[in-house]
Amino acid sequence: MPRRLHLLVNNEIYHVFNRSVGHEIIFSNKRNLQHTLDLLDYYRFTQKMRYSQYKTLTKEFKMDYESNFKEQLPLVEIYAYAFMPNHYHLLLKQLQNGGIGTFIRILQNSFAKYFNIKFDRHGALFQSTFKAKRVETDEEFVHTSRYIHLNPVTSFLIEFNELSIYPWTSFPIYSKDSLNTFVNTNEIIGRFKTREKYVQFVADQADYQRRLGIIKHLILD
Q: What is the signed CA dihedral for 43, 47, 49, 50, rounded to 10 degrees?
Protein backbone atom coordinates (compact mmCIF):
# COMPACT_ATOMS: atom_id res chain seq x y z
CA MET A 1 0.00 0.00 0.00
CA PRO A 2 1.57 3.36 -1.03
CA ARG A 3 2.54 5.79 1.72
CA ARG A 4 -0.09 8.43 2.49
CA LEU A 5 0.78 12.07 1.84
CA HIS A 6 -0.88 13.20 5.09
CA LEU A 7 -0.48 11.44 8.43
CA LEU A 8 -3.66 10.58 10.30
CA VAL A 9 -3.92 11.99 13.82
CA ASN A 10 -4.53 10.05 17.02
CA ASN A 11 -7.92 10.56 18.71
CA GLU A 12 -9.39 12.06 15.54
CA ILE A 13 -12.29 10.49 13.65
CA TYR A 14 -12.12 9.65 9.94
CA HIS A 15 -14.50 8.48 7.25
CA VAL A 16 -12.46 5.76 5.56
CA PHE A 17 -13.44 4.21 2.25
CA ASN A 18 -12.04 2.18 -0.59
CA ARG A 19 -13.29 0.14 -3.51
CA SER A 20 -12.28 -2.97 -5.40
CA VAL A 21 -10.02 -2.94 -8.44
CA GLY A 22 -12.12 -2.55 -11.57
CA HIS A 23 -15.26 -2.25 -9.43
CA GLU A 24 -15.30 -6.04 -9.05
CA ILE A 25 -18.12 -7.43 -6.90
CA ILE A 26 -16.49 -8.68 -3.69
CA PHE A 27 -19.01 -8.36 -0.84
CA SER A 28 -21.51 -10.62 -2.54
CA ASN A 29 -22.88 -13.01 0.06
CA LYS A 30 -23.38 -13.40 3.79
CA ARG A 31 -20.45 -15.76 4.20
CA ASN A 32 -18.07 -13.17 2.75
CA LEU A 33 -19.70 -10.54 4.93
CA GLN A 34 -19.38 -12.55 8.14
CA HIS A 35 -15.73 -13.23 7.39
CA THR A 36 -15.19 -9.49 6.89
CA LEU A 37 -16.88 -8.64 10.19
CA ASP A 38 -14.78 -11.25 11.97
CA LEU A 39 -11.66 -9.62 10.50
CA LEU A 40 -12.84 -6.17 11.65
CA ASP A 41 -13.24 -7.41 15.19
CA TYR A 42 -9.97 -9.33 15.22
CA TYR A 43 -7.60 -6.88 13.54
CA ARG A 44 -8.74 -3.77 15.40
CA PHE A 45 -6.14 -5.02 17.89
CA THR A 46 -2.45 -5.60 17.18
CA GLN A 47 -2.13 -9.33 16.56
CA LYS A 48 0.77 -11.78 16.85
CA MET A 49 -1.19 -14.48 15.03
CA ARG A 50 -2.90 -14.41 11.64
CA TYR A 51 -6.67 -14.81 11.71
CA SER A 52 -6.41 -18.04 9.70
CA GLN A 53 -4.20 -19.49 12.45
CA TYR A 54 -6.45 -18.17 15.21
CA LYS A 55 -9.42 -19.97 13.64
CA THR A 56 -7.67 -23.32 14.07
CA LEU A 57 -7.29 -22.94 17.85
CA THR A 58 -9.45 -24.88 20.25
CA LYS A 59 -12.14 -22.93 22.08
CA GLU A 60 -10.06 -22.92 25.27
CA PHE A 61 -6.96 -21.54 23.54
CA LYS A 62 -9.05 -18.94 21.68
CA MET A 63 -10.48 -17.64 24.95
CA ASP A 64 -7.02 -17.48 26.52
CA TYR A 65 -5.55 -15.67 23.52
CA GLU A 66 -8.49 -13.23 23.33
CA SER A 67 -8.24 -12.37 27.02
CA ASN A 68 -4.66 -11.24 26.40
CA PHE A 69 -5.05 -9.15 23.26
CA LYS A 70 -8.33 -7.55 24.31
CA GLU A 71 -6.58 -6.01 27.30
CA GLN A 72 -4.51 -3.92 24.88
CA LEU A 73 -5.41 -0.51 23.49
CA PRO A 74 -7.02 -1.11 20.08
CA LEU A 75 -5.58 0.41 16.92
CA VAL A 76 -8.96 1.99 16.15
CA GLU A 77 -12.44 2.57 17.52
CA ILE A 78 -15.18 1.51 15.09
CA TYR A 79 -18.36 3.62 15.01
CA ALA A 80 -20.07 2.55 11.78
CA TYR A 81 -19.62 0.46 8.67
CA ALA A 82 -21.26 -0.28 5.33
CA PHE A 83 -20.14 -2.95 2.89
CA MET A 84 -21.42 -2.35 -0.61
CA PRO A 85 -20.97 -4.82 -3.49
CA ASN A 86 -17.69 -3.25 -4.66
CA HIS A 87 -16.61 -0.88 -1.88
CA TYR A 88 -16.78 -0.19 1.84
CA HIS A 89 -17.22 2.72 4.25
CA LEU A 90 -15.90 2.81 7.83
CA LEU A 91 -16.19 5.48 10.51
CA LEU A 92 -13.08 5.15 12.68
CA LYS A 93 -11.17 6.89 15.44
CA GLN A 94 -7.41 6.37 15.40
CA LEU A 95 -6.18 5.35 18.86
CA GLN A 96 -2.51 4.56 18.15
CA ASN A 97 0.15 6.03 15.89
CA GLY A 98 -0.50 4.72 12.40
CA GLY A 99 -3.49 2.79 13.72
CA ILE A 100 -5.88 3.35 10.83
CA GLY A 101 -3.24 2.65 8.19
CA THR A 102 -2.14 -0.56 9.91
CA PHE A 103 -5.72 -1.70 10.47
CA ILE A 104 -6.82 -1.08 6.87
CA ARG A 105 -3.68 -2.64 5.38
CA ILE A 106 -4.03 -5.86 7.37
CA LEU A 107 -7.82 -5.98 6.91
CA GLN A 108 -7.60 -5.59 3.13
CA ASN A 109 -4.69 -8.01 2.75
CA SER A 110 -6.38 -10.66 4.87
CA PHE A 111 -9.68 -10.38 3.03
CA ALA A 112 -7.91 -10.38 -0.36
CA LYS A 113 -6.10 -13.64 0.48
CA TYR A 114 -9.37 -15.22 1.60
CA PHE A 115 -11.22 -13.98 -1.50
CA ASN A 116 -8.49 -14.98 -3.97
CA ILE A 117 -8.25 -18.50 -2.56
CA LYS A 118 -12.01 -18.92 -2.47
CA PHE A 119 -12.54 -17.77 -6.05
CA ASP A 120 -9.24 -18.99 -7.55
CA ARG A 121 -8.25 -15.42 -8.26
CA HIS A 122 -4.87 -13.66 -8.36
CA GLY A 123 -3.63 -10.11 -7.85
CA ALA A 124 -4.70 -7.01 -5.94
CA LEU A 125 -8.31 -6.81 -4.82
CA PHE A 126 -8.53 -3.22 -3.53
CA GLN A 127 -7.40 0.06 -5.03
CA SER A 128 -3.92 0.97 -3.86
CA THR A 129 -4.63 3.76 -1.37
CA PHE A 130 -7.71 4.04 0.81
CA LYS A 131 -9.31 7.45 1.24
CA ALA A 132 -9.71 9.04 4.66
CA LYS A 133 -11.67 12.23 5.32
CA ARG A 134 -11.29 13.79 8.74
CA VAL A 135 -14.50 14.43 10.69
CA GLU A 136 -14.07 17.81 12.34
CA THR A 137 -17.29 18.50 14.28
CA ASP A 138 -19.98 16.65 16.21
CA GLU A 139 -22.42 17.56 13.45
CA GLU A 140 -20.16 16.01 10.81
CA PHE A 141 -19.78 12.93 13.01
CA VAL A 142 -23.48 12.11 13.18
CA HIS A 143 -24.15 13.12 9.56
CA THR A 144 -21.32 10.90 8.34
CA SER A 145 -22.73 7.96 10.27
CA ARG A 146 -26.11 8.59 8.64
CA TYR A 147 -24.54 8.83 5.18
CA ILE A 148 -22.73 5.53 5.71
CA HIS A 149 -25.82 3.73 6.99
CA LEU A 150 -27.96 4.98 4.10
CA ASN A 151 -25.56 3.82 1.37
CA PRO A 152 -27.53 0.70 0.38
CA VAL A 153 -30.75 2.73 0.31
CA THR A 154 -29.15 5.48 -1.77
CA SER A 155 -27.93 2.87 -4.25
CA PHE A 156 -31.40 1.26 -4.48
CA LEU A 157 -30.16 -2.07 -3.13
CA ILE A 158 -32.91 -1.99 -0.49
CA GLU A 159 -35.71 0.22 0.79
CA PHE A 160 -35.33 2.10 4.06
CA ASN A 161 -37.77 -0.18 5.89
CA GLU A 162 -35.36 -3.07 5.24
CA LEU A 163 -32.31 -1.28 6.63
CA SER A 164 -32.83 -2.37 10.24
CA ILE A 165 -32.40 -6.03 9.22
CA TYR A 166 -29.78 -5.47 6.51
CA PRO A 167 -26.53 -7.00 7.83
CA TRP A 168 -24.16 -5.22 5.43
CA THR A 169 -24.27 -2.07 7.57
CA SER A 170 -24.03 -1.41 11.30
CA PHE A 171 -27.49 0.19 11.31
CA PRO A 172 -29.21 -2.90 12.82
CA ILE A 173 -26.87 -2.57 15.80
CA TYR A 174 -28.03 1.03 16.24
CA SER A 175 -31.71 0.46 15.58
CA LYS A 176 -32.35 -2.72 17.55
CA ASP A 177 -29.41 -3.17 19.92
CA SER A 178 -28.40 -6.29 17.99
CA LEU A 179 -25.62 -8.48 19.31
CA ASN A 180 -22.42 -6.51 18.86
CA THR A 181 -18.86 -7.03 20.04
CA PHE A 182 -16.94 -4.23 18.37
CA VAL A 183 -19.05 -1.26 17.18
CA ASN A 184 -19.12 1.64 19.64
CA THR A 185 -22.71 2.92 19.40
CA ASN A 186 -22.63 4.95 22.62
CA GLU A 187 -20.90 8.00 21.15
CA ILE A 188 -23.53 8.57 18.45
CA ILE A 189 -26.65 7.43 20.29
CA GLY A 190 -25.55 9.52 23.26
CA ARG A 191 -25.87 12.63 21.12
CA PHE A 192 -29.54 11.79 20.49
CA LYS A 193 -30.37 10.53 24.01
CA THR A 194 -32.39 7.58 22.66
CA ARG A 195 -31.97 4.93 20.00
CA GLU A 196 -35.34 5.86 18.49
CA LYS A 197 -34.30 9.47 17.89
CA TYR A 198 -31.20 8.36 15.99
CA VAL A 199 -33.27 6.00 13.83
CA GLN A 200 -35.59 8.90 13.01
CA PHE A 201 -32.58 11.11 12.21
CA VAL A 202 -31.45 8.55 9.64
CA ALA A 203 -34.96 8.05 8.26
CA ASP A 204 -35.47 11.79 7.75
CA GLN A 205 -32.62 11.89 5.21
CA ALA A 206 -33.33 8.68 3.28
CA ASP A 207 -35.33 10.13 0.38
CA TYR A 208 -33.14 13.21 0.01
CA GLN A 209 -29.90 11.21 -0.01
CA ARG A 210 -31.36 8.86 -2.62
CA ARG A 211 -32.37 11.78 -4.86
CA LEU A 212 -28.96 13.37 -4.40
CA GLY A 213 -27.32 10.09 -5.36
CA ILE A 214 -29.17 10.10 -8.67
CA ILE A 215 -27.89 13.54 -9.68
CA LYS A 216 -24.49 13.68 -7.92
CA HIS A 217 -22.62 13.22 -11.21
CA LEU A 218 -24.19 16.50 -12.32
CA ILE A 219 -23.10 18.53 -9.28
CA LEU A 220 -19.62 17.23 -8.43
CA ASP A 221 -16.48 18.59 -10.08
A: 30
HSE (side-chain half, CA atoms, 13 Å) at 200: 6
DSSP string, 23-90: G-----SHHHHHHHHHHHHHHTS--SS-HHHHTTS-HHHHHHHHHHHTTSPPSEEEEEEEEETTEEEE
Backbone φ and ψ of 103, nearest 5°:
-60, -50
The predicted-structure confidence for 188-211, as pLDDT tens digits, reads as follows 999 998 999 999 999 998 887 877
**Tens of pLDDT, residues 78-128:** 999 999 999 999 999 999 999 999 999 999 999 999 999 999 999 999 998
pTM of the model: 0.90
CB atoms within 10 A of CB 124: 14
Which residues sit opposite 81 in a β-bridge?
A: 90
- Whole-angstrom Cα distance, residue 211 to residue 215? 7
CA distance 108 to 74: 18
User: Mind giving me the DSSP string for 94-140?
Assistant: E-STTHHHHHHHHHHHHHHHHHHHHTT--S--B-SS-EEEEE-SHHH
Residue 91's closest CA among 154, 183, 165, 166? 183
What is the C-alpha to C-alpha distance for residues 16 and 78, in angstroms, rounded to an integer?
11
Q: What strand order describes the sheet that includes 131-135?
A: 76-84, 87-94, 13-19, 131-135
